[in-house]
Design brief:
Blueprint (H helix, E strand, L loop, with lengths): L2 E5 L2 H7 L1 H7 L2 E7 L5 E4 L14 E4 L21 E5 L7 E9 L6 H16 L3 E3 L6 H4 L1 E4 L7 E3 L9 E2 L5
Parallel strand pairs: 1-8, 6-9
Antiparallel strand pairs: 1-6, 2-3, 2-4, 4-5, 5-6, 7-8, 9-10
Length: about 170
């Protein structure tokens, strides 16, 4: 299953990929909790910097998300059109890693195009660095915004006190 890991606030990421979503007719949807505690999927007109725990986001390669519930995203009928995302929260001193994964093994062709376009844009962008400290090739494939190195701490999970900090490799 393909993954992309990038250290960037979700607000920034949503504008960063807007041209890709427009080109391939995709859309970004986020999970939100209402006053009754119910989670729904909404188009992200105003993404909160530090959304609640366990609230994910989804990139859909078609506009099925308009009336989806969070559980329907994982249905066999919908999953080939979904890129699942977690993270992207931001506070004054920290940014949480965004983890993207293609949801289904057999994806829609447009889903693959969107996923690959995101990865390629990150690879070609001079403002984006690649590689963090760690002992595996997984860490070599992390992307991060260079402007935040030394300015903010990079975290894997805001809601897990035991989660390790992410450190950028020395260049």
């Amino acid at each position: 299953m393909p993954y992309i890991r990038v250290i960037m606030p979700l607000k920034t990421f949503s504008t960063y990929i807007a041209d890709i979503l427009e080109k391939y007719h995709g859309a970004l949807f986020i999970e939100v909790r209402d006053d009754n505690g119910i989670i729904a999927i909404k188009n992200p007109s105003a993404i909160e910097d530090n959304r609640g725990k366990n609230l994910d986001f989804f990139i859909l390669s078609d506009h099925r998300g308009e009336n989806l519930t969070p559980s329907q995203v994982y249905d066999d009928e919908t999953a080939p059109f979904v890129i699942h995302g977690q993270g992207g929260r931001e506070t004054a001193d920290s940014i949480e890693r965004i983890a993207l994964r293609v949801l289904a093994k057999a994806t829609n062709q447009n889903t693959t195009k969107i996923f690959n376009a995101i990865r390629n844009k990150l690879k070609k962008d001079d403002a984006i660095g690649m590689g963090v400290q760690g002992g595996s090739t997984l860490h070599d494939n992390y992307f991060y915004q260079k402007k935040y190195v030394g300015q903010k701490s990079f975290k894997t999970d805001f809601h897990n006190a035991k989660a390790s900090l992410i450190r950028v490799k020395e260049e």
